[in-house]
Design a protein that fits this description.
Length: 289
């Protein structure tokens, strides 16, 4: 073995720790949130002079998530007002996989200020037909309260930028070894295969190492998880690099959130649009096993 040859265990934990970014983890709680509180499902806040979002056919959307932004404590995200995620109750939950930024059957709403005089009864009176299909496809059963925790997140292989980031960090942190491991396309391919196998092995351990990424769960910020693949395209230099919200399959008792067959939903935005509080250009996608 060459002297400067590194084993995966000698450098992978260090590389992954260097991908850390702030993240808000969300946990379901069995409460009854008020009209302007954070929640998954249930009834969303609607101002006195506004209507529940509808699609082009006038069918009302249902609330996927409502976030009280005062609970978000990571950079560039709003720290006041309400951020809402609405979608049509159809078999795709309002997602258009061919045009995943067109807010035709889903909608992102941001209210910078909240009127405390809006009541649950007032919003309920605005509700009409939100079941365009005979079957109820909506992934969220009932309503769940949310508990927020600020933490950090590490990039996993789910993220389309993973291999580019690892190569960059290898060249920065281990330049001599990188010359061999990344010398040409065949070397890169062998390196990626070995690293992928190593990460899968670590994930199968009875006790997963603390440096391993946790791509799944409910989160704001951090990195996404997918049961299939990242819809963003590195070749197209996609700038939707911020995870605005991830809603995973989950449950409390018999009540559950279920995306297809144990899937996960993601919303992505560019950092510039996030800073400008412009939520018109957001990728919405979900996949399942």
């Amino acid at each position: 073995m060459q002297e400067n040859k590194l084993e995966m265990k000698d450098f992978v934990p260090n590389l992954l720790r260097r991908t850390e970014i702030p993240c808000m983890r969300l946990k379901l709680v069995d409460t009854t949130p008020g009209i302007a509180e954070s929640k998954f499902g249930g009834r969303g806040y609607v101002p006195h002079d506004a209507a529940i979002p509808t699609n082009s056919e006038g069918v009302q959307m249902r609330l996927l998530a409502q976030i009280d932004c005062r609970q978000i404590t990571i950079p560039d995200f709003p720290t006041s007002g309400l951020l809402q995620f609405w979608a049509i109750n159809d078999d795709l939950t309002g997602c258009d996989f061919d045009n995943n930024t067109e807010q035709k059957d889903f909608r992102i709403c941001y209210y910078e200020t909240v009127d405390p005089t809006v009541t649950e009864e007032e919003v309920a009176a605005k509700e009409g037909n939100n079941l365009p299909c005979e079957e109820d496809f909506f992934p969220i059963e009932g309503c769940f309260g949310l508990k927020f925790e600020q933490t950090t997140d590490r990039m996993s292989m789910s993220d389309y930028r993973f291999w580019e980031k690892i190569e960059q960090l290898m060249r920065e942190c281990y330049p001599e070894q990188a010359k061999q491991l990344l010398a040409d396309e065949d070397a890169k391919e062998a390196f990626e295969e070995e690293l992928e196998e190593y990460l899968w092995d670590q994930d199968e351990l009875d006790e997963t190492p603390d440096w391993m990424p946790d791509a799944f769960g409910h989160k704001i910020g951090g990195y996404p998880g997918f049961t299939q693949e990242d819809p963003r395209d590195i070749a197209a230099e996609d700038d939707h690099d911020i995870l605005l919200l991830q809603i995973d399959t989950d449950n409390i008792g018999d009540r559950e959130i279920m995306w297809g067959d144990s899937g996960v939903a993601n919303f992505f935005i560019s950092r510039e649009n996030l800073k400008q509080r412009n939520f018109q250009d957001v990728i919405y996608t979900w996949d399942c096993c």
